[in-house]
Design brief:
single chain; 2 domains; alpha+beta; Glutathione S-transferase Yfyf (Class Pi), Chain A, domain 2
Length: 250
């Protein structure tokens, strides 16, 4: 059984989409990052970057395998299932380069746009313009690619699964899909997929209240260490509540 340590943000949703698309049975352990669960010593054993998602494959061939970083998790799941990551070198690296484009470009830049446009405690016009413009540029890159192919890497792949949850929040990023007809076409096709709908049904992220802001923003090494405390990291993973998902049918 695969255990997904999850919060319903874009990065969490991309792994849930992959698990649903691949038909892999999994169990969800909810990690409430708005209440500091990401600093639990047990969670930090699995995700030392104190971010979601993380994953434990309790049935891995060489024993339980823990992973953090959504891109690494997606590659692992694709290889484990034999789906959505082509084997031929040219197609494989086309897929991986678009996955890394999302992980290294669209995700971080859209996240900064989210912060400065919606979550910052003060208005910073330079930050708002800087990241809104950069996300717009990245949407243009995606638009051009989707004008040539039905999906990002040609066939449907983990690159699409990684990117779609970030496009869900286009309005928060200051973007309109009416400006990007190919993205709009692709976005609607993805949204209609039953596996995507099942993943989205796991929940929606909450707008952080004052307590959530303390846990999500202004993190430094010292603050993370203080939040994690000094207790030894003995738990194997974050405890339940957990929910079993996945039918084994793609």
């Amino acid at each position: 059984m695969i255990e997904l340590l999850f919060y319903p943000s874009p990065n969490g949703q991309k792994v849930a989409i992959a698990l649903e698309e691949m038909g892999l049975p999994y169990q969800v352990t909810f990690v409430d990052i708005t209440r500091g669960a990401q600093f639990d010593p047990g969670f930090l054993k699995i995700s030392p970057n104190n971010k979601i998602p993380a994953m434990i494959d309790h049935a891995a061939p060489d024993g339980p395998l823990a992973l953090f970083e959504s891109g690494a998790i997606l590659v692992y799941l694709a290889e484990r299932s034999g789906q959505f990551l082509p084997s031929p070198a040219a197609a494989r690296y086309t897929c991986l380069q678009w996955l890394f484009w999302q992980v290294g470009g669209l995700g971080p830049m859209a996240g900064q746009a989210h912060h400065f446009r919606a979550f910052a405690s003060e208005q910073v016009p330079y930050g708002i313009k800087r990241y809104t413009d950069e996300v717009n540029r990245l949407y243009g890159v995606l638009e051009r690619q989707l004008s040539l192919h039905p999906f990002m890497a040609g066939d449907y792949s983990i690159a699409d699964m990684a990117t779609w949850p970030w496009i869900t929040h286009h309005e928060r990023q200051g973007q309109s899909l009416s400006d990007f007809p190919q993205i709009a076409r692709w976005y609607a096709a993805m949204a209609a997929r039953p596996a995507v709908q099942r993943a989205v049904s796991l929940g929606h992220e909450r707008h952080a209240d004052a307590i959530g802001h303390q846990h999500l923003y202004g993190q430094t090494a010292a603050r993370v260490n203080a939040a994690a405390g000094t207790a030894p990291a003995t738990p194997d993973h974050v405890p339940p509540p957990a929910t079993s998902r996945g039918t084994g049918v793609p």
